Fold this protein.
Amino acid sequence: MQYASDSFSDRRYLIPFRSQLLPQIFTDVLVIGGGVAGLRAALEASASGEVIVLAKGALDRSNTALAQGGIAAVLSPEDSASEHVEDTMVAGAGLCTRATVEALVAEGPRAIAFLAEHGMRFDCDRDGALSLAREGGHHRRRIVHSDGDATGKELARTLLSATSTASAIRIFAQCFALDLLTAGQGKGGEERVLGAITHHPKYGLQIIWARSVVLASGGVGQLWRETTNSRIATGDGVAMAWRAGAQIADMEFAQFHPTALYIAGAPRSLISEAVRGEGAKLVDRSGRRFMEGLHPLAELAPRDIVSRGIIEHLARAPDACVFLDAKAMGTEGFRARFPGLARMLAGYDIDPGRDLIPVTPAAHYTIGGVVTDLDGRTSVDGLFAAGEAAWNGLHGANRLASNSLLEGLVFGRRAGAAAALEPKQRIPARIVSDIRPSGRAELDLADSRASLISAMWRNVGIVRTGAGLEGALDMIAFWSRYSLDKIFDDEQGWELQNLLTAGALVARAASWREESRGTHTRTDFPATLDRYLAHSVWQRHQSEPMVTPRGSVGVPA
């Protein structure tokens, strides 16, 4: 079947079929995404009605399942909510919304208790108390983890177990959400989201009508050549929300993790920040530490600082990577604390108790996203968002380590609760489609995608310049002319369209922000400027962003 879109024209969803020819499914709440935010939203919404969860890939393919480090929460008498709030605010480089941060931290202990009640196994010390780790940017040990470095896997197992036994929840795995369906039934007559058009390899295209939709589809990590993200993180939710007219904020801020395994031909597997939290040092090939003079926390500085420190060091050195020295833990000590990492490294004949671990920065987390209030409401009626696909001011210009899983739990719950309260809507009698055949030549999809992610890594990566950003925008515009006008019938084409839409948003926002702040570094504008203590908010039909003052909560006017 077919689908096409043009993210920067008047065209929105273009579906070349008559709705009565397709299977139609009805539910109260449709959740797009099978990670922590989506599953938590589904559990909350299921208390008030029927829920369908769309998982784009297999249920174990989400970024949630890949998470190693843990979940940050104030659980020790030596810690305090004010300290967690302050660490988050400092990492966010002036752009965090304090009310959002305070809401996250306040609900942290309850979120951990919820997981424990549903059978999640947390690592404990010999006395049975929760084992708390420390990661970059945190001044206290407040990170709970499971099986050393498999927190995400255990979290995903726990939530999937809970949702699979909930009678009001249906999970559709391997189901791709192509686009949101809207009609002019919102407040004041504007468009309202009424469901989505989906594709399943077995059942084909389907229409799912819903009172409300929760986008929890993750970030845009596959935009960059070097990435720790799952193959499915192609910005589908952000692109769908953009086409539906939702506001998108702060896409210039994308976090690069400092330590991904660097072995030619191997995936950029994450080497958890917790390894540095347990004492591992960043060194060059000669064994010399290079972060000590760059920040008081050295290797435990916020991720943007460590990533830039590595890039700057490599610019002066002949090596292609730097190294983590975890030898002080010893072979058995490392294996006991990080069993999954130890197994993975052993596959490359690396013994962390004896060998240096080669690492390099890689794209890791999308800070910007679909603008929401504290309950996940977007600027489009009936549409909610949570987790990495959403923006509510939590992370500012740089995410604090291990706040992301907590974010999915806290704001996924809030979005699910609010979405379940949406009123029933009149379903349109038909879907209007307006497909015009393209007269332009076709590009090879695989080559276009490879070229896009290389251009993003080179020009819109850890270090940026105005000229590089303009070059990236020119290239994206070229590929878009030959790809966004096409009708595709498989995921490869749909994903490329979404990546092009998301890539243009990232590059445009980065070009607008003529300063360096948090994860966004402009060598042509190295200073951090007070006039950019604001959020760039983008919306279709507008060539320039709306500028929203920092500290705002909710959907900007």
